Fold:
Amino acid sequence: MALAKGAPESGAAANLVAPQAVAFWRDERKRGILAQIVVIALLAGFFWFLLRNFLIKQELSGAPPLSLYFLQDVAGFQLSFSLFPLTLDSPIGRLIAAGALNTLIAAFFAGIIATFLGLIVGIARLSKNWLISHIAATYIEIIRNIPLLLQLVFWYGGVLTALPKPKDSISLFEAVFLNIKGLFLPMPILQEGVGWFFMSIAVCIGLAIVIGRWARARQMATGQQFPTVIVNTAVIVLLPSFVFILLHDPIGWEFPIKGAFNFKGGLTVQPEMTALIIGIGISTAAYVAEIVRAGINSVSHGQSEAAHALGLKSSWTLRLVVLPQALRVIIPPMISQYLNVVKNSTLAGFIGYADLFAVIGTSQNQTGRAVECVIILMVFYLTISLIISTIMNVYNKRAALVER
Amino acid sequence: MTDMTENSVVPGTRPDLPPPVTESGIIGWLRHNLFSSWWDTLLTLFAIYLVYLILPPFISWAFINSDWQFLPAVELGEKAPEFSDCTSGGACWIFVRARFGQFFYGFYPDAERWRVNLVLIMLVGSIYGLLSERVKHKKPIAWFFFAIFPILAFILLYGGLGLPVVPTQQWGGFMLTLTLAGIGIVFSLPIGILLALGRRSQLPIVHLLCVLFIEFARGVPLITILFMANVMLPLFLPQGVEFNILLRVLIGVTLFASAYMAEVIRGGLQALPKGQYEGAMAMGLGYWSMMRLIIMPQALRVAIPGIVNNFISLTQDTTLVAIVGLYDFLNIVRAGSRDSNWIGTEIEGYVFCAFVYWVFCFAMSRYSMRIERKLHTGHKR
Structure:
């Protein structure tokens, strides 16, 4: 870094002392330009070499030129799970899209589990209760030091295959069933009038935001406080429940019913997906817990002491002083953990869940289109990481400390 | 308060009262740490219940009700050990005992396994020499470890110089995992340093190239890079040139790890105050001598915890090579428990495997925490 920066000054100084021209290999700026030219030339040569090899090989083997038209071909293989209907003669492109969607779904739910579990464990880790904090520490240390793939195959091969057969499945309130064939949940069925219910929820959330704004503005102006949290919770919970009762159960539930071999009806989460979501969720939670802990620890002791000295009670100290500062530290690594969740979901193939990588792998096997398949994969993951890192940068700019 | 002044006891003439029982000793500790309030008590009871739910069944499964001994017939060599030898209903550790050689050495020929052991001894010795505070002269060890040891290890493991060649297809198990992680570590560090310097460089093209590479490698999952190395790389090699699958995987793993390494080292570089650069330049040092003598020693020291954490994730990531059909430690254990003689030993295999990975990674993380504590000069309470 000092190379180009120091150049003009040192050149000028040299001129003062000895006015003769500096040889170009001693002039740092020229040397920098030369080095860059060499780097470009080397790199260009390298890529040209690779490309030439590729073209020669393609000509020799008579492979078709690169194109994405193969996405329209009939795939001829099936996915174990997909959100939209697929038949045996669906095009490859449709299967790949289904795989991408599967990746995102699994990552979404794993992310939710990781966030909540991680938050709980992170706070437990900081608990003054010796037993609780040591249980949390044990959890974190065990999970973080065992490869994720091992955890996934353990959940899938070790735990889920040890689950009971459908006829003696584990049940929760006779509504949720867990057995070797998967997790069976009741499925919500929307009935007449449900629109009103959703609308009431939206209205209430809007109302809550308005109340919050008003309360804040009043506090800024007069210093009077308003119990925003309690009032808003009441608004959001009570009004929609009232509407719910008025409408006579706008949402019905279809419960899984025990059939001859397995459960019918309801919402079925297949075991592969369950294992993937549980495995990634539990594993990421350990990292999230460490992030939460580091964030809370990062707020200097003086801050909470000063807050106490001002007479804030501890819950206010946490809410008004510690958490806002901790969040600044917590959010950026959290976002990269979400990115990790998406990336880690590529391990799905090992336990038979049809995520994007698994589908691409099979397509490559079937069509031999290695380059195109790799490009699709890379573009997908790079787009996601670009989106996530853009969000992160925007957030960082807004949350960063404004210093001198 | 007033009582004491009226009686006017001269300090030190009467023995101190012992602290109250409820505030000291075991009872005091319990009161403070487990039962300080009703909420605390509730949490403690919940935690005890949780431990009770998990620990006793696990201990009984793993230790009390488990099989450790081979049957006499197996010891005599009359029959092969199998899953049905385990009769206790708990863990079947016979499986791990019977397969231990394979788990550790893969398919490496029995007669040549001493070579693996020798490499391992050298590895452990030099790592101890590099990390221990008792060893003073680290320079020769570092030279040995980063320059001579890789060549020596290659000759020993692969063959040559009179040693019979063991093709990489026969490598496997824990030894393969160590090889992958070790080579990844040894090569990703220098490449990572160069990338970090490149990213901080003021030469626009060098900077751009390094940023592109780092962001690309960090933006995609390792498994897609392995996939690329497996299916795409061969298409771009000259006609007739074939890269060994292990070599391809190693290139992928190393490049991937070096991008992460670069970011950690960049963090170390950024932590240095500008005065260090200015001081070095004022001394008349050129770019490379400044980096070598002034900047890197300090930046690397700050970055050590992050570097070790990268080593840990690299070690864990080596499990992904199973996707290209290599039998690393995890994959060989998985394959072992699918053997028809050993159906039903999946959990034993995974627990054993997890234990080994855990010991390694935990040791590394403790080391990095110790360094962190040593470097920590802030105000911590």
